[in-house]
């Protein structure tokens, strides 16, 4: 089906190329063969159409903005896909699930989430992944890695316990109808003080945490290593010695690059004292970001965590360039990085707004004994319209060869 869609896409592109070649040919000579033009590597990334090479990984910006989300930018979220098939989500801020869904990845593969700190702009869509994945028939538990806090209640485990309470109505109301495994959480809380400590090691992939400095104690950054590649993700942090030492030489270094004070003052009406503190001490401002990259020399530096527009990007870039001359990209949502041994390719994803989140690829296991029923009060208000239901159930049974039985009257 997918190969078929790709083929159709290529044919469409070939036809357009032929047409353009024909138009161009009326005034100038057509260079080369139109089919060759159609087979050129795409300028944009069409989700679900490219297989990663064995020595390649892809990172997609699924949230690059600030806590107050806007249509163009969700809150912090980065999707990492490796050439071995493994997929990881680093932070999952509000609205980022819509971006993740656009990447056309079956839900069974979206089961590993690493949270850098517990600000809600870095974990706000965790309940949406949990419940949305269930609705799309995820057949595996959701695994979450996150730091401890200064007290047990400030750590990731306690945050997920609170989230479970928040989601209890959702959980109880659908028990017995969803895959029993998909409703489970597996929480891996690790010491926020760990310096380059291994927190994940499976299938040739190692993920380490380093402490970050942000807001209060208990924030971390991550370093993923696989197949000789290194991906570093800051989440939120003030410049620190741990990043300098352990993120050095990353193939892709995604680090926060917060809006500079003057942007916060002029566009968000922040008071100057607060804007200065937030941009340069609570976070990492563009000039500080540039200095970090100059000191750690990644193959590609990626800055995020500001509203990236035509009027803000020149200001941010100028400040980055005041301290750094190396390769840099200022990220926005749906930006895609393909990293190979000799190239870091940056493109935008061509997003299909009609896409549905993809269902899981494995068979669902349900336990109907867990199903909750209505009490007498709610049941007393039912208007059954039995003849309508019998018609629907009959048609569906006939179409799909099933024998589902409508519950008895009353
Ligand atoms: Zn934060
Ligand atoms: Zn943040």
In the CATH scheme, what's the topology name of the largest domain? Metallo-beta-lactamase, Chain A
The structural domain count equals 3
User: Helix coverage percent of residues?
Assistant: 25-40%
**Strand/helix succession:** HHEEEHEHEHHEEEEEHEHHHEHEEEHH
What does this structure look like?
The chain has 410 residues and is an alpha/beta fold. The chain folds into three domains: 2-38; 57-348, Ribonuclease Z/Hydroxyacylglutathione hydrolase-like (Metallo-beta-lactamase, Chain A, 4-Layer Sandwich); 381-410, no CATH class. The protein contains 13 helices and 15 strands. The chain has helices at 2-25, 34-38, 96-102, 126-135, 156-166, 168-174, 241-246, 261-268, 272-282, 286-296, 313-321, 376-379, 386-400, and strands spanning 57-63, 77-82, 87-92, 112-114, 142-147, 185-190, 197-202, 205-214, 216-226, 229-233, 252-256, 301-304, 328-330, 335-339, 344-348. Strands 6-5-4-3-2-1-14-15 form an eight-stranded mixed β-sheet. Strands 7-8-9-10-11-12-13 form a seven-stranded mixed β-sheet. A hairpin with a 2-residue loop joins strand 9 (216-226) and strand 10 (229-233). Mean pLDDT is 92; it is low at 14-30. One zinc ion is lined by residues 117, 119, 214-215, 236.
Brief descriptors of the model:
410 residues, alpha/beta, Metallo-beta-lactamase, Chain A, 3 domains, eight-stranded mixed sheet, seven-stranded mixed sheet, 13 helices, 15 strands, binds zinc ion
